[in-house]
Structure formats: structure tokens, C-alpha cells
Amino acid sequence: MSTPMPPGRRMAPAADPLARFIAACEGDPLTAAFPSRVPVMPWRGATPLPAEEIDAAYDDVLRRPRTETTIAYLHVPFCHSHCLFCGFFQTTWRAEFSAPYVDSVIGELERAAGAALVAEGPPLEAVYFGGGTPTALAASDLARLVEAVRRYLPLAPDCEITVEGRIYDFPIEKARAAADAGATRFSIGVQTFDTTVRRRLGRKASRAEVERALTALLELRGPAVIVDLIYGLPGQDARTWQVDVATAMALGLDGADVYALNLWQNGPLAKSIARGKLQAGAALPEQALLYDGAVSRLLDAGWRQLSQAHFGRTMLERNRYNRLVKDGAVCLAFGGGAGGSAHGLSWRTTPALDRRADALAGGRWPIEGMARLPADHAARTRVITSLDLGRLDLAALEREAPGVRAAADGLLANWCEAGLITVEGEVMTTTRAGAFWSVNLTSGLHAALDIAANAAATRAA
Q: 2 — phi, psi (to 5°)?
């Protein structure tokens, strides 16, 4: 039996690679434009390098100075527990991991500091300590790591240095040590303030404990304090979400991020829902309304919308790393399981601690995978960052990828009719509905880039 097209959705040939990106043109575009989300694949079109070529390729990258905007990512792959909603868990935290791991990353930084890729080029604009849970580290070790970044990497005077973490393992003494060492931004994964929902998801701190901890961080009068909130969680109804947003607004935070629940396939949350241990989260139409309500409340209160999901209340929140990584900036990568890119290549450091230790002990760089970026990578990153910001220069995209306008014309017309975008001259702007469905629009334009690239290859053959 065939599945009927949603009302107003234009029929496309079954083999058409753009078919899944055709939006419904009837009904509310916010809640009914697409039946599902289509995830963005940042490294789409990249060609993996054979394992035997990786060491030589990375050595070559290290010998070449940078010319582009640059950021750095340091991964801390430990967590006290695996929260049900998370797809990034690697290693259960033990206190004895702290000092040896930090020693190894500092050694990695010191060794890399002499390479042209690190030493020669524009100063770094942002550094992100991600995970995992960087705040799991002992206070002295976290401070040592921040200090090492300042010592070994050529940072801009106003470089944004973010420490990601969770309230449970970030007492004020540890936060003060990180701030004194040079951290300028704390990004705290709150997800929800509701104690009942938090406990079901594996979060340990109660609403009162979270609010007290965030207030204490703000009283440091130093680093910007940002929280991540997730909408669509199991047990989180519209009222709970409204309270989450209102609580974030009332605390005096510098910024907040609002993310839709990403249900990782075969992840612990998906398994709990499948087994009936937890109810399913909000369906996409409900998520769209939750997003719309949050954006309206934040903008009405004078917050700045920095991207599709990021909002700033004060000028301390710049969201610099998140913006630049989507914009295709050169990224230096350190620690276990970090991703980097430069000179047309992307790579990932070894996530397993034993393999990482073996590589470092043998004088090798702990690189596990590497890929060559596609020729139209600049165009792909332009689409990603522009859709995240809500405004795409179509003429600039065409200059970077000739033929993409013709390939995408049908999509653009459909999205305009559906109420997801407007096009004036050569500028495409997303509506509120388009912002919610931005991953679908981004993936659709990436599919159009594939068509343009294939056409160019056929002409050249």
C-alpha cells in the first residue's frame, strides 16, 4: 500500500533526491511542514583516508601555517553517569583519571605548540572544553588545563574560553578555580529545572540545587553563565517547559540555548521508551509549538537571538565557538575523542584511553580517523551557518558552487509557498517555522549541492 502525500505536498519523482525535502503547502508550516526531521551531516561528501596514510597526512597538516579563523576543542571524555538523553557518553568517571588525563593533554598541547599549524596564523578566537563532562575534573586539574591552553595556544586577547559542565560536579570552589585560570564562559547542561523529570533522566541535582548553583556562578561576576534547555523530554508538558524558560529568564543568566530532544537510536532513552519504562516525548508538532513559545518569550523580554537555538541576555554571551565551528573555522583538536579540521582535511583523535596512551607513549599523534573534505565544503558550511543564523546569500552560494541555484529552484519555490522562507533579490530568510525546520532546509540545500557537483563532474568527464 502506498503512503498518501500530506495535504499540499507537491509530488516528486520517486528517484528525485530532493523529494524528501518538499514541504506541505497547506496547514500550519510550523507544525506540519514535514513529517520528520532530516539530520544535517556536517562531513557529507568527505573521503576517508586509508589508515596507513593518516600519520603522514597529519604530519603534513601540522607543518602548514594557518590563514583562516581558528578555534580549538579539548575533549574530556568522562561522566559520573550516562544520562538517558545523551548520545556522547564514553567513559565512567573515576577520580584517579583526573591528574593523569590532564597531564597527557598538557603534554599534547606542549608538543603541538611548536608546529606551524598551531604557532603560525591568526590568534585563536574561541576554545571549548567539551565532553563528556569537563567539570568532572578535580579543581586543580581543570585549572591546570585552562592555564595550559593559555600558555601553549596563541589566543586572541578576547578569546572566548568555554568550560562545559553540569551542576552536580561543579561546586563554586571549582568554578572559581577555572575562572581564575582564565575561563570566560560556563555552559551548564541543565536540560530542565523540573526535579521529577530530571531524576527520570538520570540527573542528580534538584530544582533548588540547580537554582542555587547557578546563582552562585553568576555571583562570581566573571565568566558568562549559559544554560542548555531541552524541549520535548518525556514527562515535560507545555506547562513544565514554560516554567523551565521562565526560570532561566528569572535567574539573570547571560544566555540560554533551547534544543529539541534528539532521540538517539539505540540510546538509553530510546530503549527506556521502547520498553515502556518512560513515556514518549513530545511529537514534532508539539515540539514546534514549544520552540515557538520559548522564542517569543525570550525575544519579548529583550533577549537577542544569536542563532536558531542560542539566545543572549547580556553582551557577555557571544556564542563565538558554536558559531565559528559551524562556519568551517580551522579547529585544533586535543584530548580523547576530539574532532579537528584544517587544510582540507578533518580528523578525530582516538577516544579510547588505552589506545590514546599507547600512541602518546610511542611518540605518535593519537589520530584515529581522517578524511579529505569535498571540493564544495565551503558552500556546505555556508549553508549550515547561514541557515543557523536565518539568512543565506544565494548569489554567494552560487559563486562557490555553480549550478546550485538551478538545482535548488524548485525547493526554494516550494519553501516560499509553504511559508518556511522568503526570498528578496538574492537573499533567502527563514521564517519562525523555517527556523524550527532549519535542519531539513539545510539538508535539502546540501542535496542540491550534490546535484550541482554531480553535474559539474559529468561535464568535466
A: -80, 155
* Phi, psi (rounded to 5 degrees) for 382: -60, -45
Query: Do the Cβ atoms of 402 and 452 come closer than 8 Å?
Result: yes
Q: Distance between CA 20 and CA 5 in Å, rounded?
A: 11
- Residues 159-198 have pLDDT tens digits of 999 999 999 889 999 999 999 999 999 999 999 999 999 9
- DSSP string over 237-304: -HHHHHHHHHHHHHTT-SEEEEEE----TTSHHHHHHHTTSS-----HHHHHHHHHHHHHHHHHTT-E
CB 229 within 8 A of CB 258: yes
pLDDT of residue 43: 72
Sheet hosting strand 421-424, strand order edge to edge:
391-393, 427-430, 421-424
Contact 205, 188 (CB under 8 A): no
- Best CA proximity match to 130, nearest among 145, 144, 117: 145
What is the mean pLDDT of the segment spanning 111-133?
96
Calpha distance 229→210 (Å, rounded): 13
Asked if residues 244 and 194 have their Cβ atoms less than 8 Å apart, the reply is yes
The 10 Å Cβ neighbour count of residue 289 is 18
Q: Angle between the 377-389 and 438-460 helix axes, to the nearest 10 degrees?
A: 160
**Grid cell in block for residue 428:** 533567502
Closest of 422, 444, 443 to residue 433, by C-alpha: 422
- Paired sense of beta strands 185-191 and 155-165, if any: parallel
Here the cell at position 395 is 548569489
Element (H, E) at 181: helix 172-181
Q: With a threshold of 0.90, does the pTM exceed it?
A: yes
CA distances from 361 to 57, 94, 100 (A): 20, 22, 13
Q: Name the pairing type of β-strands 391-393 and 70-76.
A: unpaired
**280, three cell numbers:** 514518549
Task: Find the radius of gyration of the CA atoms of the chain.
Answer: 23
